[in-house]
């Protein structure tokens, strides 16, 4: 049930014109989008389509006028899939045919009396690479001379994980859909926190109350999948918490990480130091050697852990020497030497 609820929240997000326009302009072929008057973009009411499409709770259907053409429509069907369906091309073809049947019933033809073109796309959210055929004909056994009579249809694929992992993907792009794709697949606290300002900016756009509501619900549910959050934190996120509050809570949590890692590093260093000290003492064969080895090992462990953390904080570039000194309890002289060896 929680998984289905998240899918429905995802559908609500992509049912918002602002989000869908960003999807079109950023990820659909420019030669298609350039022909469209995006100011006419509108959702197709669920009561408008037949029973086959009404039962498709995870799909959204839109229509838009083609520029300088009298009421010629494009319909967009998106499937929110989390696993590869080998016969997706058959399913999509079925939905397109069902849509055409409904258009015929409603007598919604072009000025030339023809059916409007349909653009179908699959929005895939799974972790495994999408391997299913995109062309229906690829699923049909060929027979010489029969090709002209074989049903043909091709859907457009949007593989979220593949998109954000391409070398030329711009993680700083100010596009709401890019941020959504990343939030679905990233599990780093720092990366997710970096996305929040853009998501909040879109949610706070004037007149976008429904978008704000949809984004708020979806983001909080997406965060509950994070394995670095405690169950208590997840419960807090799902309560009546605003996006700004979520952002602040994440920031506070992230700011606490250096101290957490310092303590973990020191404890690990102490543990390693004790072990080394015992080994050295045993080798010397005297009790005094063990005691001195333990003491020396503890101090070395602390020092190495602090220096290691200081180097990491310097590499991040977000901390001043004073802040690093405070966090690691190292002297300014040591910090400056580490920064400029």
UniProtKB/TrEMBL annotation:
Stretches assigned to the Transposase (putative) YhgA-like domain: 4-165
Entry's Gene Ontology BP terms: DNA recombination
PANTHER family cross-referenced by the UniProt entry: INACTIVE RECOMBINATION-PROMOTING NUCLEASE-LIKE PROTEIN RPNE-RELATED (PTHR34611:SF2), PTHR34611
Highest taxon above the source species: Bacteria
GO MF assignments: double-stranded DNA endonuclease activity
Protein name, as recorded: Putative transposase
Species of origin: Suttonella ornithocola
InterPro entries cross-referenced by the UniProt entry: Rpn/YhgA-like_nuclease, Transposase_31
Pfam family, one: Transposase_31
